Amino acid sequence: MSPKPADYGDTVTPEHALKYAIQHVHGGRVQLIEGAIEPLSLSWAHETVADILRRQLDPRAAELRCIIGSGDLDLPGSPNWYVPDLAVVPAAAAQGAGALRPDQTLLIVEVTSKADADTDRIVKRRRYAEYRAPLYLLVDRQQRALTLFAEPGQLGYTHITGPLPYGTPLHVPAPFGLDLDTSSW
Fold first, then answer.
1. Residue 167 is part of a domain; what is its CATH number?
2. Rounded to two decimals, what is the model's pTM?
């Protein structure tokens, strides 16, 4: 019998076991979506949209002393461990963190793919609101539209902008206070 890893603990819940397992997957990154392990495989078209957004957000993120990345997000008490396409997080919170909670972000961005569009549209939207992510930007490549969800409440986000068709500028409120240019998509 092999010994338990030091960080595994004596009281192991199914949630902890699943989250431990996905953090130790070799050969690629995975997410845990409502208890199902889902590998990430992103197309270059998908990455292009994320890159365009990152470049527009970078100057303001730097002013806010934030970083933009796709690090792990833990949703404690649930069978979920997400890897967003982009998240803007305070640099101090990200320093040395293995995973953050959605409420520690300033903005989370998900860019849909054919395989996971409904997960981004429905499941993640609900969970990000539940876990108090202040802003959730959904870039729906299949619908060619953007939707910004703000002000998380008990029943989901209480302020929704969109869906706006590609080419329509999207205002991202405080602390960003900028308009995203979607004309090149």
1. 3.90.1570.10
2. 0.89
